[in-house]
Design brief:
Blueprint lengths: L2 H14 L3 H11 L10 H9 L10 H12 L4 H13 L9 H11 L3 H18 L3 H7 L6 H9 L2 H6 L3 H10 L6 H15 L3 H11 L5 H7 L5 H8 L2
Helix pairs in contact: 3-5, 4-5, 5-7, 6-7, 7-9, 8-9, 9-12, 11-12, 12-13, 12-14
């Protein structure tokens, strides 16, 4: 089966399970230009799993091109399906593929949920297999694009669970410390919280050193794993 037909069948299956009422609620919640079908994330991924013709026996680049075409649709569930398709061929990903996903964040993503899909299910693979990738993702902290800035922090969450990226988390959090966007603040707050599970003393020292400049939102998130006394001390400044 050709990829054009595979894409058509995949889109048809996604559209067939659309829930207009749930989609309306998603649209109100995210308040952006992306269209929603009203599927749950697990259902969108299940539909991809049920269409192996979209990736089995296909060249990695072909699958990535198919996934990118779904990303460009600017339909949330199509984008979830796109990320899940990439996971089917992630063992074949090369460093030269990284700019493609940077482009996805810059040109196709329009909400935090999809930015996190890319960060947690694609970018993590690059970092886990080549720690030097953090130099490229760290540079995104200086981007004008909100989703690149959020991804610069969030892409470290999964690697932090499996490896040790303390310095990477502290460095990107420092770079994003006074970011004006709430969703970027939440992103680096999340990375700090995850890091605090392995390095409570180092992360707490970072918080206490920088709490005067940190907005309250990331401060509260970063402190979630600490005892009430430490949280009060850090928040009282």
């Amino acid at each position: 089966m050709g990829l054009v037909h595979a894409r058509s069948e995949l889109v048809k299956a996604l559209e067939a399970e659309a829930d207009p009422e749930r989609a309306e609620g998603q649209q109100r919640y995210f308040k952006n230009r992306m269209r929603f079908l009203g599927l749950r994330l697990g259902d969108a991924r299940r539909i991809v799993d049920q269409h192996p013709e979209a990736w089995e026996g296909k060249d990695c680049k072909e699958v990535l091109d198919l996934a990118e075409s779904l990303m460009a649709d600017r339909v949330f569930e199509h984008q979830v399906a796109a990320v899940h398709l990439v996971q089917k061929v992630k063992r074949s990903l090369q460093m030269e593929d990284l700019p493609r996903f940077e482009r996805w964040l810059q040109c196709h993503v329009d909400n935090w949920a999809e930015a996190d899909e890319v960060a947690n299910h694609i970018l993590d693979h690059f970092i886990l297999h080549d720690r030097s990738v953090t130099e490229a993702t760290f540079a995104w902290a200086g981007s004008e694009n909100i989703w690149l800035r959020r991804a610069a922090a969030v892409c470290l969450v999964v690697p932090m669970r499996k490896q040790d990226h303390l310095q990477d988390v502290l460095r990107v959090s420092k770079a994003l410390l006074k970011d004006p966007e709430d969703l970027v603040q939440k992103g680096y707050g999340w990375a700090l919280k995850e890091c605090s599970k392995k390095h409570p003393e180092e992360v707490y020292a970072f918080i206490m050193e920088n709490r005067g400049q940190m907005p309250r939102t990331p401060l509260r998130i970063a402190l979630e794993k600490y005892d009430p006394e430490k949280r009060r001390a850090a928040m009282s400044g």
